[in-house]
Write a structure and sequence with these properties.
Bound molecules: NADP nicotinamide-adenine-dinucleotide phosphate, iron/sulfur cluster
CATH topology of the largest domain: TIM Barrel
Largest sheet: 8 strands, parallel, barrel
CATH class of the largest domain: Alpha Beta
Number of strands: 27
Distance between the termini: 42 Å
Structural class: alpha/beta
Helix content: 25-40%
Strand order of the largest sheet: 3-4-5-8-9-10-11-12
Shape: globular
């Protein structure tokens, strides 16, 4: 199968022809509430249109005040807002793209006190009880959807997407879980479906033949959600009411099943999309954990879907489609499903960007102009900061040599790739390798750089990105051979026994616990294993850990508070189910033949251990930088080598990329 011919095959949605089968799916950017920054949003989407996306769907805009996501504007309901939206639409059209406005009424998921829903039932992920909508308010809300759609088309959008999935207002009307009404809007499926169908009809009447995409919940993953049969009924009714395509969503936000994070196997939910496609005549868009060109092409080629929606993958690489078109899918910068700079930013009120693509939503901070003077640049250390610096500098035409002492590039990313659920980090590294070669960067692995040689070779610029060294533990017995650093465990250079104590409760401590408990050796979970694990087709099936593991930390409080907002719960749940013991408020006394001796507020305890893995943070590895500087050469120090505290791939990659781009 040739991904190029499948993904570049033009197709019709409604009356509009799309140049590729890749849709940039809707995702909140954090700018929807800031009309004064819509020109940035326009640039961000235009970059994706130029990169070959066939269709773009904006983040959600509410049809009225009650439906907003957060306690700020973010509605599109008044004619005077049309001019602001032109700043989004016009650049996309100028770049040859097509764009839909997503209309999203948050229902009981809104983060503000004035939330509404079909019934006054609180969501488990929100603190406010929603007010029950009256019949009049329901009718008004339907008119509001139509008004927003009309305004969108006036602003130049090619149509709208009606957000009908993920547990927002429309889902709440459809599901018995959240709709306990006894009037014409509740009870039977026809009554529960009256609201979405009325919305689609009203929007169709308001916008003529502009596109209506309906985002349908293909799989609810909550008790009291729609059954498969009901979902198929809905799909047919939505088509009959006037939708031009169905875009599939998976799972409510309150579902306790991962739907987009790293542990979800690629294309895991495609069967649900295929079932919808079998019952409708309009195009169907697949989504969720499709991040590779070959997967996208396969699900279209095998008839599971007509289009593939990618939001995060197009954040990670705006030129995704163009790279496929050029026959270079290997150059696609792979989204690793970490959520760290996209969803987690949104949830913490920051504008989104991307961990592996710091240009995302910061397009103006970077230049693509060739460097006026081509310099000879040495980058010492090929962890993520060094790779990002080398890549940006190489792209601007500098002559870059990237030195790495280890036999392979990747640093902490290479270590992370063996953690269950982080296998995509390995794909990201492969893509980095291809991109570095394409940018003309000379990569020299297995070379410990000697400052004298660097000086002799007379580089114009020297960038040091030697990263970090894992911190050791300074207690009596700390030099026992059973005490090892996490890096040695993850790179496979030490054997780990059956009884393990992990010192440190940060992100790496959690990852190492999962790695040792599951022992997958880098093998991805299959779709069947994943479905069984999370009980998607039945009761969740947990597995016994491969080892007896205890995590221990000095600080008080529960473990895992520092983990990512949208992914940390998965890791916490995994470790709980694997029965990993967690002990807080420990003072480390000594290590003896019996194990790790700790003092707790109310007692002392000996934790028996065959292996003690130290995950106690890192120190900057500045040795090379200091020696180069002592040699009289100017040096730029970036990433973990500059600052080990809060070692963070997001910061390291950004620092590398911006320096490499400006050097
Ligand atoms: P970290 O999150 O800062 O955690 C370091 C742990 O070591 C803390 O739990 C700290 O706990 C303990 N510690 C610090 N100094 C110590 C000392 N001198 N002796 C004994 N214990 C000590 O660092 P990390 O786990 O190495 O992770 C590095 C970075 O990568 C972090 O920014 C992290 O967020 C990120 N990361 C995130 C994930 C994820 O979200 N899944 C996974 C991997 C890495 P006490 O002070 O309580 O003892
Ligand atoms: Fe993907 Fe992570 Fe980038 Fe989000 S931040 S787009 S999940 S790589």
């Amino acid at each position: 199968m040739d991904a190029r011919s499948v993904l570049l095959d033009p197709t019709l949605v409604g009356t509009v022809s799309l140049k590729s089968r890749i849709v940039m799916g809707s995702m909140h950017t954090g700018l929807e509430c800031h009309p004064e920054r819509f020109d940035e949003l326009g640039r961000f989407y235009a970059e994706r249109a130029r990169g070959g996306a066939g269709l773009i769907v904006t983040g959600g805009f509410a049809p009225n005040f009650a439906g907003r996501m957060k306690n700020e504007p973010g509605t599109f309901e008044r004619p005077e807002q049309v001019a602001d939206h032109k700043k989004i639409v016009d650049p996309v059209h100028a770049a040859g793209g097509r764009i839909l406005l997503q209309i999203l009424h948050a229902g009981r998921y809104g983060y503000h006190p004035a939330v509404v829903a079909p019934s006054p039932i609180k969501s488990p992920i929100n603190r406010d009880v929603p007010a029950e909508l009256t019949s009049d308010q329901i009718q008004q809300t339907i008119r509001d959807y139509a008004t927003t759609a009309k305004l969108a088309v006036e602003a130049g959008y090619d149509g709208v997407e009606i957000m009908g999935s993920e547990g927002y207002l429309i889902s709440e009307f459809l599901a018995p879980r959240t709709n306990h009404r006894s009037d014409e809007w509740g009870g039977s499926l026809e009554n529960r479906g009256r609201f979405p169908i009325s919305v689609v009809k009203a929007v169709r009447a308001a916008i003529g033949d502009a596109i209506i995409s309906y985002r349908i919940s293909a799989l609810e993953l909550v008790d009291g959600g729609l059954t498969q049969e009901e979902t198929l009924w809905l799909a047919k009714e939505v088509e009959r009411a006037g939708a031009d395509c169905l875009s599939t969503g998976i799972g409510w936000h309150e579902a306790v099943v991962p739907t987009i994070a790293g542990p979800v196997p690629h294309t895991a939910f495609i069967e649900s999309t295929r079932r919808l496609k079998e019952v409708v005549g309009i195009p169907v868009t697949a989504s969720n954990r499709i991040n590779l060109p070959e997967d996208a092409a396969r699900v279209i080629a095998d008839g599971s879907a007509d289009l593939v929606s990618m939001a995060r993958p197009l954040l990670a690489d705006a030129a995704f489609v163009n790279k496929v078109a050029a026959g270079r899918p290997d150059l696609v910068n792979v989204c690793i499903a970490c959520n760290q700079a996209c969803l987690d930013h949104y949830f913490t009120d920051q504008v989104i960007t991307c961990l592996v693509n710091p240009r995302a939503a910061r397009e103006n901070d970077f230049t693509d102009a060739p460097a006026a003077a081509k310099k000879r640049v040495a980058v010492v250390g090929a962890g993520v900061a060094g790779m990002a610096a080398a890549l940006e500098a190489g792209r601007r035409g500098h002559h870059v040599t990237l030195f790495e002492a280890a036999p392979r590039i990747g640093g902490q990313f290479a270590l992370a790739a063996v953690i269950p659920g982080k296998e995509d980090y390995g794909l990201s590294l492969k893509s980095y390798e291809a991109q570095l070669t394409d940018a003309g960067v000379e990569v020299k692995t297995g070379i410990a750089v000697d400052p004298e040689t660097l000086k002799r070779e007379n580089f114009d610029e020297v960038i040091v990105s030697t990263g970090v060294t894992p911190r050791l533990i300074d207690i009596p017995g700390g030099d026992d051979p059973r005490v090892v650093s996490y890096s040695k465990v993850l790179d496979g250079s030490v054997n780990v026994g059956d009884r393990v104590v992990i010192i440190g409760g940060g992100g790496i401590g959690h990852d190492v616990a999962l790695f040792l408990a599951m022992e997958t050796n880098g093998r991805r979970q299959t779709r069947e294993e994943f479905f069984a694990r999370w009980g998607i087709d039945g009761k969740p099936k947990t597995h016994a850990a491969k080892r007896q593991i205890t995590m221990v930390k000095r600080s008080p409080g529960v473990f895992g508070r520092t983990l990512g907002k949208s992914t940390g719960w998965i890791l916490r749940q995994e470790l709980k189910d694997l029965k990993v013991r967690q002990i807080a408020e420990a003072r480390y006394l000594k290590i003896s033949g019996e194990g790790l001796h700790i003092a707790l507020p109310d007692r002392t305890e000996i934790l028996p251990a065959d292996t003690i893995v130290v995950c106690a943070g890192q120190d900057s590895d500045r040795g090379v930088a200091d020696r180069i500087a002592a040699n009289g050469q100017t040096v730029h120090v970036i990433g973990g080598a500059r600052l080990a505290g809060e070692l963070d791939a997001k910061r390291a990659i950004y620092e590398g990329a911006i320096l490499g781009n400006r050097i």
